[in-house]
């Protein structure tokens, strides 16, 4: 059946995504295209398994292992692993693919992505938003993001976060840094924009908050 927004049928959207993946191989700046693929998967969850399978296919026996086009597929696979969990059969298939890649190309960039993806899949529980452009750039380099938190009565604090870091984890780290561990007060993060200010739920992923700001 037709999906939400301006989407057509799942079959047609799957074909569009396949064409996007073909284009990804040649993109100089693949970040916007990656975010578009992730957004489609968020809007149309049945396509998550489809994209995982397509990416496994594209990274199996590539014409130029470790080339730019091949690494673009691995980078999108990395972003997928930090955003969506595939179904159990696809997850088993994906893990087999990761193991095989690490075995065939030890110490290569593909093996490093495979290791990162495996660790991410063990933490991913699903996202409210797709990764921001900044987060995608960091994931492409397998690095953490730097989040700036403004504290009343203290200078702004920079905190390194991953795609899986929760608001509670950041609040606890800041409490420790500011020497407030023995304080009887409760502490929380707040999300502030021009129109509103509201507390961030303890289990909320900071990466989702940053995407909303973007």
Automatic annotation (TrEMBL):
Q: Name one Pfam family in it.
A: MyTH4
Give a Gene Ontology cellular component term annotated to this protein. Answer: cytoskeleton
Question: Which GO terms fall under biological process for this protein?
Answer: signal transduction
Question: Per the database record, which ranges form the MyTH4 domain?
Answer: 1-140
Q: Ras-associating domain location, by residue?
A: 143-214
Where's the FERM domain? 145-214
| Signal sequence segment | none
Q: Which InterPro entries match?
A: Actin_motor_Myosin (IPR051724), FERM_domain (IPR000299), MyTH4_dom (IPR000857), MyTH4_dom_sf (IPR038185), RA_dom (IPR000159)
Could you tell me the superkingdom of the organism this chain comes from?
Answer: Eukaryota
Annotated protein name in UniProt: PKHH3 protein
Please name the source species.
Answer: Oxyruncus cristatus
